[in-house]
Design brief:
Blueprint: E1 24-26, E2 33-39, E3 46-52, E4 55-62, E5 72-73, E6 83-88, E7 94-98, E8 101-105, E9 111-113, E10 128-134, E11 137-142, E12 145-150, E13 158-159, E14 172-176, E15 179-184, E16 187-192, H1 201-204, E17 214-221, E18 224-230, E19 236-240, E20 247-248, E21 257-263, E22 266-271, E23 276-280, E24 287-288, E25 299-305, E26 308-313, E27 324-328, H2 330-334, E28 341-345, E29 348-354, E30 361-370, E31 375-383, E32 390-395, E33 404-413, E34 418-420, E35 424-427, E36 435-437, E37 444-448, E38 459-464, E39 469-473, E40 480-484, E41 491-498, E42 503-510
Length: 511
């Protein structure tokens, strides 16, 4: 049988178009190199570090990848400091690794330094090459070694470099099982989480197989560590289990790697001038994965966005169309063995799929996401048919035109395994919208909710440009609502109307 990727979270409202197995360019950053990407796991806001050649252009944010408004530059408080890397905690705190220490974005939407405990040379703090949130700690790799601190802002940084050779400046730090890994040059170093006691290649041959190549990025999934390397006949190496002996995944036409991302025993490697390759954990089967992405694209960063991937590419002044950010649905790229489809027909949704494996299947359950319950629920069941591999279903239970619906298949196999299809989304064509005036605003706004939006369990939320919740008005019981925004700082905000059946957003400018 086959394995499936099931995303650990689903963005219900942040996509206006279903992307099926193709990379789509995200508007607004076409002439920039996207060096680092971070996504708020709670509300879907995304953040990118943008350069043009060697010039830092800014730290940009958007509430979702299809939002038509310009990107917001949120580097207030940084001055001329360049941002190298970006990371977000599960609570939504936004951290910056810069050329002069570490910053976080405070509730006033300003970047504030948190460098207490870091060594300083005439007021200049170490340059941060990697920044990672692991459990309750924030870890950084710098040109002065590794440091960590509790994520509470008042605590100081503590050195975390015991037995790490001098001069090691990790470009990637991550959690692997009960250990912390750091990559630098051609080595991978490991230590237990409790206290720093790094073990490197000289003592237990960690990094074996990589030779004199340079590790550009590192990822881990399940029991496998992947490294993306440059200057090689192969751009990706892997180590299975705790052996820390790396072997080549596959030859890829002598392409060097920039980036790597892994999830559920699959990985994607971003190359220099060769696009993206995709592979599975234990097989040497890297395959070109560039539908609609320029074949010559250099991919500097990869991160997850909902059920898909974001790829940040490099800008070249001599190459027309280079640079920018792309989105692709990686569940479809992984494999759509069911040929699973859904589309709106009148006041219903028509769904179809195929039973590729035939005699290995006992039955299918068609599942639909229940917003109120926050989980998928079965709406129909189909036992294996010996006469046909084709299945069809029409869903007439469409409660709110203008909303979106998520569907997936649950397959019960004869050997006892359960498999899931990729999740697909249907956006219903009837458009719902609410009204806000005045906009821009200073003191108060009036929000008008039309009759075709149910007020049952309806809430109004206001987020700033970083995705930080500023206002939360619960249990709205009237269609015309006066909201005081006088306490909000000047800038761009996002109003969201949310209920179990619909979620809509609108930009608001406060002057």
């Amino acid at each position: 049988m086959f394995s499936r990727i099931v995303a650990p979270f689903i963005f219900l409202i942040f996509f206006n178009t279903v992307v099926s197995g193709q990379w789509v360019r995200v508007n607004g950053l076409d002439s920039f190199s996207i060096n680092s990407i971070a996504v708020n796991q709670t509300n879907g806001f995304l953040f990118v570090v943008a350069y043009q050649n060697t010039n830092f252009m800014g730290l940009f944010s958007k509430p979702n990848i299809y939002d038509p408004n310009p990107w917001t530059n949120i580097t207030k408080g940084l001055g001329t400091v360049k941002v190298n890397k970006v990371a977000i905690s599960p609570e939504g705190t936004f951290y910056l690794g810069t050329a002069n220490g570490v910053y976080f974005v405070n509730e006033n939407d300003s970047c504030e330094s948190i460098n207490q405990g870091l060594p300083a040379n005439f007021g200049i703090y170490p340059s941060v090459n990697s920044i990672t949130v692991i459990d309750t700690f924030l870890y950084i790799g710098t040109n002065n070694g590794v440091f960590r601190k509790l994520r509470t802002q008042a605590t100081n940084w503590q050195p975390f470099s015991q037995n790490l050779p001098l001069g090691v400046s990790p470009n990637r730090i991550l959690k692997y099982r009960n250990s912390i890994l750091a990559s630098y040059s051609n080595n991978v170093y490991r230590t237990e989480q409790g206290a720093a006691n790094w073990i490197g290649a000289d003592s237990i041959a960690m990094g074996q197989g990589i030779g004199t190549l340079t590790i550009e990025d590192m990822a881990a999934s399940d029991s496998i560590i992947y490294v993306a390397v440059s200057g090689a006949w192969s751009n990706t190496f892997k180590s299975i289990g705790d052996s820390m002996v790396f072997t080549s995944c596959a030859e890829t036409n002598y392409l060097s790697s920039y980036s790597i991302f892994s999830i559920n025993n699959q990985f994607w490697t971003g190359t220099f001038y060769g696009g993206i390759y995709k592979g599975t954990g234990r097989g040497n089967d890297l395959a070109f994965s560039n539908p609609n992405l320029p074949a010559w694209a250099s991919v500097k960063s990869i991160d997850r966005y909902g059920t898909g991937l974001l790829a940040g590419t490099e800008y070249y002044s001599f190459q027309t169309g280079s640079g920018g950010l792309y989105y692709g649905d990686f569940t479809v790229l992984a494999a759509n063995d069911y040929n699973f489809k859904a589309y709106e027909v009148g006041q219903s949704v028509k769904i179809s799929w195929q039973d590729i494996f035939g005699t290995e299947t006992q039955k299918f359950e068609l599942q639909k996401f229940d917003n109120a319950a926050g989980q998928f629920k079965t709406i129909a069941a189909f036992h294996h048919s010996a006469s046909s591999k084709n299945y069809n279903y029409q869903d007439y239970d469409i409660k709110n035109p203008g909303s979106n619906i998520l569907y997936r298949l649950k397959e019960f196999c004869l050997n006892g395994e359960i498999q899931y299809s990729p999740t697909i989304r249907v956006d219903l064509n009837t458009y719902l919208q609410f009204t806000v005036h005045p906009n821009p605003a200073r003191d108060k706004i009036t929000v008008i909710i039309p009759e075709n939006i149910s007020l049952q369990k309806c809430n109004l939320l206001v987020y700033n440009s970083l995705g930080v919740l500023k206002l939360n008005i619960k249990a709205i019981n009237q269609r015309q609502l006066s909201v005081d925004v006088s306490a909000l700082s000047k800038g761009l905000y996002w109003l969201k109307i949310e209920s179990p059946e619909v979620s809509l957003s609108k930009a608001l400018m406060v002057e």
